[in-house]
Amino acid sequence: MLLTPELRARIEQVSLVSKRRIRASYAGRHSSKRKGESLDFADFRPYVPGDDYRRIDQALYARLGQLVVREFEAEDELTLRVVLDVSASMNLHGKHLAARRLAALIAYLGLAAGDRVELFAVPGSTRPLEAGPTGHHLTAWPRLETWLETVAVGGGIPLAPILRTLVGSSKVRGATVIVSDLLDVEWERALDGLALGAGGIVLQVLAPVELDPDLIGDLRLVDVETGSETMISTSEDTRRHYREVLEAFVEGVAGRSRKAGLDYLLVPAVEDAAERALAALASEGAVR
Amino acid sequence: MNLLVPGALAFAALAGPLIVLYMLRSKRRTVQVSSTMLWDRLGAPVAAAVPWQRLRLTPLLIIQLLVLSALVLSLARPFFTQQALLGPHTVFVIDSSGSMSDAGRFAAAIDRAEDLAGQASTANLISVVQAGPEAQVLAAFSRSPDVVRSALSGIVPGGAVADLSGAVRLARGLATPDRPTNLLIFSDGGSGPLAEEPVIGATHLPFDATSADVSIDGIDAESSDEGLIRVLVTATNHTTASRTDRFEIAVGELPAGTFELEMRSGGQVSKTVPVEASAGDVISVTRLGDSDTNPMNDSAWLIVGQGPLRTAELVGEPSPFVEALVRSLPGWEESDEGEVLIVDGGELPEIDRPALLFATDTVPEGIEFVELVGNVPVTYQRPGEPLLDQVDLSDVAVAEAQVVDAPGWLPIVRAGDSPLILLGSVNGHRVVYFTFDVTHSNLPVQVGFPILGARILEWLGGGSGASVSTGVSGDPIVLAAPVGTHPEVTRPTGEVVTLEESAALYKETTVPGIYRVRYVGNGLEQTGPTAVRNFVPAEAGVLPRTIEVASPPDLETEETALVREWAPWVIGLAIVLLLLEWWVGHQRPGLRRTKVATA
């Protein structure tokens, strides 16, 4: 069980906030670019035959002598894409489990809000992008949870082209949530690709030992995805320098995310990662 | 610093390989990481082609070099020499005088002696001599610290004068010819110089603590016209300030009043206090208030009078010497129907009480007269006989003596095979039989004659009445147990000591207080003498002094030098450094580290 009943109960009381207007096929609870039937006034336009005469602004007609209709904002259903990084690097230090819990958190948030939730794993077992189950109501949760519980870790593949393809090719501009350690040399391009969508969240998952490594001695570091090697001799100075580089990296990811219109959250891969993430999202205003 | 094994310093060369190990690049351990991306940005040192690297003085290397140094030093066994108190044979002379009771000197001396005994090895022989009123050997040539400690624990501090000179002489008598003997004198120096000073081959371990003490120096009594007893109390303030103390006077167990004495520093004050008491009563004076550093002299006791006089009846043809003997003995007087019968020559009357017989015409029952012999010298004194304690009869010559055969009697003085003085029993009464007339000998002119006479009368009169005595600590108590009984002495501490039937003296009276004697046995239980022993005034407020000592001219310094090794300390240092090395080598666990920001 990725989410505890207590956490699910808490999630059902909040919903994701989309920062950008969306365009969807179905009515929902999020502001749309289309004009619709909501109570929120949007604009005026000249009357054309066929318009609902009940929308003619009688006051303006009396003052100006022109037939003008009032337009209102439409409320569309949000498409929420949850992209789970299952590359080999996520298989270290418990990051895979933490990432799946975070993906489950986002998916449950979407389902609880009536959004259309789509799950993806990058890379998939047979192709770069594996599409998981889709749902738009909590009744779909068991299918989504089962898929998240069983999704396996794949190999190493650059994220950027896959995300660009996923977000850019979709007919529906929904929000995208990426759950990844982003330890990818092309992490900037990957985030830029997400900017094509209707906003979203970057959940960067890093293990405690990656935040504060406890490596000792002369080491040969092997990249689990690329197989590349780096020789280091650790010392207190080395570790302090690493922490400085990591801090700069994290700051860079956060800044790039904001630039792409995305919320950003760094989550340590710990047991209560989902609870921490929910609390942090609430404090950031990404959910309410 | 001296080294027992200087060659072990060669192990210091191991520092070379240790340093070489630090200059060698270690084989790298392979660790899988999520990405090398961040590590690549470090510009961290990467592996070079050569197996060597520049030596860097890391804390770990420095600590390991220190550990190696400590281990090498411990192998080299550094040492220092110390003047040894314990030699091949050491005699502990423990001063148990009254002044040692002051300010914890005695306890400190015993602690030091026990500590030294604990340091002794099997190569050290230790003897213990107590310097009390009489010097005595408590342990001789012991290799066992337990035996020495047991002997030390048996020494009881008292209020008596210690015979330090006698103890030193006794200790010298224990000197062994095959191994040097040194004396350790545990003392505050005593109240005056020793005759032996400077004491050759001795070390004086001074115990010179001083502190405030007020002592009761004397207590005396005399009858007043009003029928009261006037008790004279004398006290001395040994402190450095004037003070006023309150004292309580009691008769027996009943308090009879209190009084105050105002004493200037170092001053002695007396006061007369009238009390109602009668002969034989024990009067005690006790200082009230906080106890000072020597509680032994905070109380004093006095027995009023000397108890009822004891009587002896002289019959036969008493010589002037025998008559003078009875009259001169304190506490004795001549009387018809006296407790003790003295028969000097003539016919032997019926023995119906203890009797002292001098060559009667008819010998008593159990003795068979053989013949008379002339001009016989004393050739034998029974060893250990209490009646002959400190009585030397070796110069006694007898002009005429009876030769007797007395198989059931105990001869205590003989001339050859012929008994001169016999102890026995007739009709259940003690009898002492002289086989010669004292006027036919030079016994009456011997120094020991009155002592011998007093002893014999005390022995014969034992149990016939209570005797009392007031004295100072260390004065013996004269005992005279009736036939078939043994003395039991109740000490001031409440301890009951059972003595042998033949015991004539009880000498363990160094503790001030009241001693009560009972004679128990053979169905009898009779009250014996009561005696009080007071703290010797001269032992109060004794200032410490140093006993002059000197080294024996032939003592080799090597025999008294003690080698002390630093190894335990160096090894301890090495262990601490090893722990430090582990801590540093394991990245200082337990130390707070800086956490990276996570948002």
Global Rg of chain A: 23 Å
Radius of gyration of chain B: 38 Å
Which structural class is indicated by helix and strand composition of chain B?
alpha/beta
Give me the oligomer status. heterodimer
Shape of chain A: elongated
Q: How does this model look, in words?
A:
The complex is a heterodimer of chains A (288) and B (599). Chain A is of the alpha/beta class and 288 residues long. Chain A is built from nine helices and ten strands. A six-stranded mixed beta sheet of chain A has the order 5-4-3-6-7-10, with helices on both faces. In chain A, helix 3 packs antiparallel against helix 4. Chain A is elongated. The two termini of chain A are 24 Å apart. The relative contact order of chain A is 0.15. Chain B starts with a strand and ends in a 14-residue tail after the last helix. The C terminus of chain B is likely disordered. Chain B is α/β, with parallel strands linked by helices and 599 residues long. In chain B, helix 4 packs antiparallel against helix 5. Chain B is built from ten helices and 35 strands. Chain B is elongated and about 135 Å long. Helices cover 18% and strands 35% of the residues of chain B. In chain B, strand 4, helix 4 and strand 5 form a beta-alpha-beta unit. Chain B has an eight-stranded mixed beta sheet with strand order 18-17-19-20-26-25-24-22, covered by helices on one side. At the A-B interface, strand 8, strand 9, helix 8 and strand 10 of A face strand 2 and helix 2 of B.
